[in-house]
Design goal:
Shape: globular
CATH topology of the largest domain: Glutathione S-transferase Yfyf (Class Pi), Chain A, domain 2
Distance between the termini: 26 Å
Number of strands: 4
Bound molecules: glutathione
Helix content: 55-70%
Order of helices and strands: EHEHEEHHHHHH
Length: 209
């Protein structure tokens, strides 16, 4: 299979780019993993980026694509491993996983709107005691009901994996004071994490990053 020349531009962070990087890795599609500083982005890229934000994917040095989940769906369609399933029901299951994980990430990120530290702490305490356990339980039950037990990986699974390895553990739970392995209590989430983690291309990617 031949592919265009790809360059993925983001910060030196996982957050919105990592599921895309993993989708490339699982498919064996070569890409330039460009990691820019906030300063370089503001000075050189923000004006020309389609929506003034990263990640962006540059195709063959000319077409510039934006919006992380749109890019992920694209990469999930073009490779030999159909990470974005062709079956519409399987596709919407993957889409729902992505949206739910994004809702969790937004809830974590919303703590930043509070400049008053006492209010921020109260928000995070509620997150830890109520919001996160509820959201994670919903995710666990959804996976139990809808996600295939096979080795097949979807872009939705990549988001669940990213929730555990990226935002939630390194940033989110650190904020809320939760232990880093808080997802471990959720059997079905954990199974998805293990499925992705044990994929040879993902294991190889993690060993290098
Ligand atoms: N909906 C967009 C959101 C992108 C976004 O919020 N990007 C942030 C980094 S995670 C950004 O570029 N911030 C710098 C800025 O807005 O100037 C996506 O999913 O790609």
């Amino acid at each position: 299979m031949t592919f265009p020349k790809f360059k993925l531009t983001y910060w030196d962070a996982k957050i919105r780019a990592e599921p895309i990087r993993l989708a490339f890795a699982i498919n064996g599609i070569p890409f330039e993993d460009e990691r820019v500083s906030r300063e370089h982005f503001a000075a050189e890229l923000k004006q020309s980026a389609p929506f003034g934000q990263v990640p962006i994917l540059t195709v063959d040095d000319k077409l510039v694509l934006a919006q992380s989940t749109a890019i992920l769906r694209y990469v999930g369609k073009i490779g030999p491993v159909k990470l974005y399933p062709e079956d519409p029901i399987k596709a919407i299951i993957a889409d729902q996983l992505i949206s739910h994980v994004q809702d969790i990430e937004s809830a974590l990120g919303a703590a930043f709107v509070f400049t008053d530290l006492q209010q921020r702490d109260a928000y995070r305490a509620n997150l830890t005691a109520n919001v996160l356990p509820t959201r994670l339980k919903q995710l666990d039950e959804f996976i139990a009901q809808h996600v295939s037990q096979s080795d097949e990986i979807t872009i939705g699974d990549l988001y669940v994996y990213q929730l555990n390895t990226g935002f939630l553990t390194t940033t989110g739970f650190a904020f809320t004071g939760q232990p880093k392995n808080s997802v471990a209590g959720f059997e079905h989430i954990q199974k998805v994490v293990e499925k992705v983690k044990s994929h040879p291309a993902v294991a190889e990617w993690e060993a290098r990053h």
